[in-house]
Amino acid sequence: MASREWRVLPADTRGVLRVDCGALLAGDAAAVVGDLLAGRGTEPALVAPLQRIGRWAAALGPRLLDGVVLLAHLRPAERGFLLVARGAAAAQIDTGAFAPAGDHGGHPLFVSHEARALAEAPDGDALWVARPGDDGLVSGSEEAVRAALDAAAGRAPSIETGAIGPYLETRAADATFAFVYGLPALYAPVATPGPGGSSLLR
């Protein structure tokens, strides 16, 4: 059973990175993490997702980096990313720069075309924000935010029913940096490499 913080993610989440930004930036690795959030580093696997979180912080405000952040990669790839902020820090993120844009399932929606450029959000020309609960915030494209609200409310399947659902709780409960990512074979048949014989078996 997935913990509450995961259940806001839609079932078609392909991968998710969980980062306790507040803990990391307050610890011995603060300088390194700060560089990664700014896009400076030599390891692309770390620079790319953390720089994306850093850009989202530029759009939503620095309080985003005071707590836990989930960065989810949705399927298909064209849907891009969904950012989820959790905890007290998320509750204090100011959405005043975002314009009201109706509601979804009783949760107010907010949108900003200017913030989209800061966050380099995929899909569409605006960055959307909503609060699925008192201690959380979701942000991304309109489609991604609506999907997250539906998953959180139980109106649509959440990540725990998806392909990577069974693997979510394999991480340490108190990990400050953890990720779960589904390789292509989880979603479709993948041919074994080579002519057979000594090649890998599925």
Give a short summary of the structure:
The protein has 202 residues and is of the alpha+beta class. It has helices at 21-25, 30-37, 44-60, 88-91, 113-119, 142-153; strands at residues 13-20, 68-74, 81-86, 99-104, 107-112, 127-130, 136-140, 177-181. Strand 4 and strand 5 form a beta hairpin.
Features:
202 residues, alpha+beta, 8-stranded antiparallel sheet, 8 strands, 23% strand, globular
Describe the structure.
This protein has helices spanning 21-25, 30-37, 44-60, 88-91, 113-119, 142-153; strands at residues 13-20, 68-74, 81-86, 99-104, 107-112, 127-130, 136-140, 177-181. It is an alpha+beta fold. Helix 3 packs antiparallel against helix 5.
Kindly report how far apart the N and C termini lie.
27 Å
Please, what is the average pLDDT? Answer: 83
Sheet of most strands? 8 strands, antiparallel
The strands making up the biggest β-sheet line up spatially as 4-5-6-7-3-2-1-8
Element order: H for helix, E for strand = EHHHEEHEEHEEHE
Helix content: 25-40%
The number of distinct helices, counting runs of at least 4 residues, comes to: 6
Pick out the low-confidence regions: none
User: What global shape is seen?
Assistant: globular
User: Assembly type of the shown chains?
Assistant: single chain
Structural classification? alpha+beta
Name the beta content range: 15-25%
Strand tally, please?
A: 8
Radius of gyration: 17 Å
SSE layout:
Blueprint: E1 13-20, H1 21-25, H2 30-37, H3 44-60, E2 68-74, E3 81-86, H4 88-91, E4 99-104, E5 107-112, H5 113-119, E6 127-130, E7 136-140, H6 142-153, E8 177-181
Antiparallel strand pairs: 1-2, 1-8, 2-3, 3-7, 4-5, 5-6, 6-7
Helix pairs in contact: 3-5
